[in-house]
Design goal:
mainly alpha, Cytochrome Bc1 Complex, Chain D, domain 2, about 0% strand, globular, electron transport
Length: about 130
């Protein structure tokens, strides 16, 4: 009986983990909302928005060669999962005065998937 309960508990825990796993393919589809202004990958360049290679761990307003708003340069936030999630929901609320014109992504699962997709790209644009 104890073994049956332990097996059931393990299955429940593993199932919960799988259900909350991020979907990189879904994140790539979500990335299509960003592509009009941002680039990723080994050939990424700044466009309407800065290239996003190596975003996580980077300080806001620091991509070389990109002309940031004063608000973004002065925000001095370090991009991590929580900060990105808050920002991407409503960029103008997180950094008032940003020149990023985007309505935001409100769905938590979509944000998680997009985060997982972006995290694949190192500073050099190579998938890690």
């Amino acid at each position: 009986m104890r073994l049956l309960i332990s097996a059931s508990l393990l299955a429940a825990v593993l199932g919960a983990g799988a259900a909350s796993a991020q979907d990189i393919a879904a994140g790539e589809r979500s990335w299509n909302k960003c592509r009009a202004c941002h680039q990723l990958g080994e050939t990424a360049k700044n466009g309407v928005g800065p290239q996003l290679n190596g975003l996580f761990g980077r300080v806001s307003g620091t991509v070389e060669g990109y002309s940031y708003s004063t608000a973004n340069k002065n925000a001095a936030i370090t991009w991590d999962d929580a900060v990105f999630a808050e920002y991407i929901k409503d960029p103008k609320a997180k950094i008032p005065g940003t020149k990023m014109v985007f309505a935001g992504i409100k769905n938590e699962k979509e944000i998680g998937d997009l985060t997982a997709f972006l995290k694949q790209f190192g500073k050099d644009g190579k998938k890690q």
